[in-house]
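Board notes (copied after class):
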Amino acid sequence: VQLQASGGGLVQAGGSLRPSCAVSGRTLSSYAVGWFRQAPGKEREFVAAISCSTGFTYYEDSVKGRFTISRDNTKKMVYLQMNSPKAEDTAIYYCAAKVSGPAVPPTTSYDYWGQGTQVTVSS
């Protein structure tokens, strides 16, 4: 399995951005895919995850109501729609996948990782 995140960039606080994650390998419905982030000097943390078979989603509390994770099984893509981002959302964002287990934390339960994409929110 290979994952490739893209679509990061510079966005103003209150704007919107939609990073994408391309997943190769088996059919996308075989995986749960999560988004994670790591800010300078901080540990990598969970942001959101989706079961690509059922569509079940799970969010970290600070992004609920602002971020939406979705998937397109045909295109083998997972998206993170970031609305009303804040300066504290600035980080490198990673996508990761797991074959078994629910679409929830912890970070260590995810087996396959892509490279990150930088998201910078200006205030």
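Comment from the instructor: The chain has a mean pLDDT of 97. The first strand starts at residue 2 and ends at 6.
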